[in-house]
Design brief:
The chain is built from ten helices and seven strands. With 245 residues, the chain is of the alpha/beta class. The protein folds into two domains: 192 residues, HUPs (Rossmann fold), CATH 3.40.50; 38 residues, no CATH class. The protein has a seven-stranded mixed beta sheet, sandwiched between helices. The longest helix has 16 residues.
Length: 245
Amino acid sequence: MRLNRSSLQRFARECLSPSRPNHATHVRGIQVLKSIKEMWDYRDSLPKGATVGFVPTMGALHAGHISLVKRSKQECNVTLSSIFVNPTQFSPGEDLDKYPRQLEADLKLLEQAQVDAVFVPTTADMYRPHTLCHVEPSQFSAIREGLARPEFFRGVATVVCKLFNITQPTHAYFGQKDISQCILLLHMVRDLNMRVNVIICETMREHDGLAMSSRNAYLTSHERSHASVLYKALSAGQAQYDKVS
C-alpha cells in the first residue's frame, strides 16, 4: 500500500472507529476470549505478579499440545492457550483451507487439561486492513523450510509476536518437534527484548515413534504405516553410535 494523505486518513478512521462491547464466553468452565479487547481485559484482571504461561496453537489439538499445557500448569499461576489458524504462514497452494478445524473438541480437551482461558481471535481482529508492519527474520528465509516456503517464517514470527503482545505471558511453551520455529522464536525474543521466557519442551510421539502432529490426519493408512521409518532409522543409528562411543 502506498502511503499518502488519503490512505493515512482511512487508516486513522478504521483504528479510531468505535467498536461494540464484547463479552467473554464461558464454555464448561473455560473462559473463551474472542477478541483482543476481551483478552486484554482478562489479562488486566489477573493478580499483579502472577506468572502466566501461554500455549499458542492452531487447533486440532493432540497429546503433544496437552503436554505443553501440563508443563505450564506445573510452572505458572495461570495458563492461557490460543487457537488461531494463521493465514500468513501458509504459502499459495498449501493447506490453509483444509487445515483441520475442530473448535468444540479442542475446547473440551483444554477444559479437561484445566486451562484457565483460551484466546480464539478472528483473522479480521488479528490482521487489520492496510497492515504495514511485520517481523522479517531475514536469514531464516534463505535456509531450512524458508527456501521452499518463503512466507512461512515471517508469518510465524509475526503472529507469535502479536500473540505475545496481546496475551503478555511470562512463559511460553513450544514443542521441540518444530525446532526451526523454536530457534526463530528464541532469536526473536532476544533480539526484540521481549519479557517472555520461551520454554522448549520434548517432542511427544505416537507408539511407533512418529512425532505427534495435527497434519498426521492427512496420512492414508499406507502412508501412516511407513511414516515412522525415519525416526526408527535415526534411533537405530544412535543406538549403534552409543555402543562404540
